[in-house]
Every structure is written in structure tokens, then in C-alpha cells.
Amino acid sequence: MNKIVLITGATSGIGLACARKFAANGDRLILTGRNEQRLEEISKELTAKGTQVITLAFDVRDREKATQCIESLPAEWKEIDVLINNAGLALGLEPEYEGSYDDWDIMVDTNIKGLLTMTRLVVPGMVQRDRGHIINVGSVAGDAAYANGNVYCATKSAVKTITDGLRIDVANTAIRVTNLKPGLVETNFSNTRFHGDTERAANVYKGIKPLTGDDIADVAVFAANAPEHVQIAEILVLATHQGSGSVIVRQNQ
Ligand code: 8X3
Q1: Quick check: CB of 183 below 6 Å from ligand 1?
Q2: Does 184 contact ligand 1 (Cβ within 6 A)?
């Protein structure tokens, strides 16, 4: 059935891949992100292929703007079937005792508090309708800390607990809650983590075939389209030569 899917952080990486895959699946999309121009370009691309798209430009850290944007949706678009809490980022990869306060604030405000804001804004309607699905993009980084990952790993660990908590709190409804945990995915992720140091970012994917945003989006589409009695509670998706968050076996190195 044609669903209304809201994707945060839809302008790049896993979010953009989800936008394209859910569009191809015949769904209607509400795409959110900070970059209004990119949102418009993506909307044009998908609209040209027959997808109905609404774009909302806001930063999930801005609770007031997020609230206004969700409230501004036309009545029929407010009936969101799938919320994909994808907006999130890693900033920095250094020992915890040397980390940047600013990087920490941005990660906590986006990965944890932004996800909570979107949940708080969208899920009450789902509860009222007794229908819906929340897919939170967690990470293998949330399963166990890896060297220098400290605060980023902690935010993804929080995503796991917040996702589990929500699943428990809506277990009396038909709403499903999924923690989708990617491993090594080649997107802008490392470039952002290293504050634009492209060489350092490229090294992350050297000697291993990483996952793509499409690989993760395929899994999101699968989870969202599972039969109604099937709740994909948690999925860990790793690159084949990745054993865990910290074990990556590189070829020809
Ligand atoms: C992204 C996966 O292993 O680079 O969350 O932290 S990892």
C-alpha cells in the first residue's frame, strides 16, 4: 500500500538513498533536511518520476522550527505512516579526553535530541491512528565503543535504548519500531567526521568494499513492507569484511 514516509536528513547519504528507494516503491515522501536547495533538487528529481513529495527545510536541532514545519503539513499529509529518523552525524575521532565540546554538542543535539523531537512530534498521531512504523538509524557504533569513537558511539547507544523504549511504549498498538544499524557505509559520513579532510575520509574505505546508502535503504524498505504482524526490531548490516565496529579486514594493505 502507498505510504506517507517522512525521512530526516534526506539530502544525502542513507537518507537520500531511502528517498529514492521508497519513491521507487510507490510511496509519498516528506523530505526534511537543512539544505533547502538540495531538497528542492531532490524533490524535482523524484516528482519527475511521478512521486508526490513535500519538502520541509529545518534542522532537527531546532525544536521550534521542527514543530512549526510538522504542524504546517496539510491534513492528509499529517497521517505519516513511516518515520525514518536518519538525520545524524559523527564529528571527530579522537581520545575522549581530547574531544571537542562543540562536536559533542552537535552530535548529542542531532543524534539524540533531534531524533527525540521528531519522535515526539510524529508518533502521537500514529498512536491515535493505531498505525505506523518508526525506523531509527542507529549504528554498529551503538553496540560497543571503538577506539576514539566515544561520544559518537554513546549517541548511537542512546539511539538503541530510545528505540527499545519506544517499542515497549507502543507495544499495545499496531506500531512497529526498528533500529537499523549500519556498519561501514561509504557516504559523506567520514568527510563530515573529519571536518572536510577528504584524504583521511578516503582512508576509512581503503582495502574494503563498504556498504552503500542503497544497501541500507533496501533494508529499510524491506522492514517497512514486512507483513503487519512482523516487527523487524533490530538489524545490524555490516560490510562483508567487517567483523564489528572495530574489526575491519582490509585487502592488499
Ligand atoms: C557508522 C558506522 O562504524 O563508522 O555509524 O561508526 S561506524
Answers
A1: yes
A2: yes
